[in-house]
Fold this protein.
Amino acid sequence: MPDAIPHAGAVTLTEQAYRAIEEALATLQFEPGAVVSETQIAERVGFGRTPVREALQRLARERLVHILPRRGILVAPIDPAEQLRLLTVRRELERLIARLAAAQADDAQRETFRRIAEGMERVAETADDTTYLRVDRALNLLVLEAARNEYASAAMALLHGLSRRFWYLHGRHSGGLAESALAHARLARAIAAGEEAEAAAASDALMDTIEHFTRATLG
């Protein structure tokens, strides 16, 4: 994992399990539409049943899985048409939180945004899709933290995971990884500089890139 990703302090086992399962879902280690057991998931990510069960409850709220009583865990299918509806909402929220983050980030956060931009620029050169997802997640979390709006954060939590998984299935094969990484870097640098208008424009440009490959999957 590159040093562009901010290192959080101590986190609970449930949070660690959540992050591990979310990444496993985003990178399609569990096939969309498959039904798996808690035991299979726990063995895959290396955490005990209790933190895994609590993490799955959160992932169910984020629509990445569906809990089927007495049957197991259904990994949510991937639907391009649903993804386009998601992006309609995400575009507006992303623009808002980008402006808020640019206006309200503290000095430490601005330095981390610069490190994330550097990380995304390296990803553009290496085309490392797993690192891309990790740095993307770090950027998403930091933007929400810097925006200081719990309502926007709650709404975006329902959208980011689904978007990351869709990109891993379709976007990384579209040849657009470098373009997407550089779009993320532009956003991170605008927020770091405190440029609200540029951050909003960079957010829209990033959403344009994401929408382009999403529509291409329907073509």
Summary: The radius of gyration is 17 Å. The chain has a mean pLDDT of 90. Strands lie at 35-36, 65-68, 72-75.
